[in-house]
Amino acid sequence: MADPISTPEVANDIAVLPKVSGVKRRKLRSWINRLTWALIILVPLVFVLAALGYKLGLFDLGFAFGTLNQKAGLALSILSGVFGLISLILAFAIAPRKGLVAGIVGLLIAGGAMGKLVATKNAVYVELPFIHDVTTDTQDPPVFGEVVMAERALVKGVNTTDYIGKMAPIFKDEKPVGEKLVSVLQTKAFPEIRSLVLSDPKDVVFGEALATAKSMGWDIKEENLAEGRIDATHTTFWYGFEDDVTIRLRDGKGGGTIVDVRSISRIGGSDLGKNAERVTEFLAKLSK
Question: How much is the pTM?
Answer without folding.
Answer: 0.85
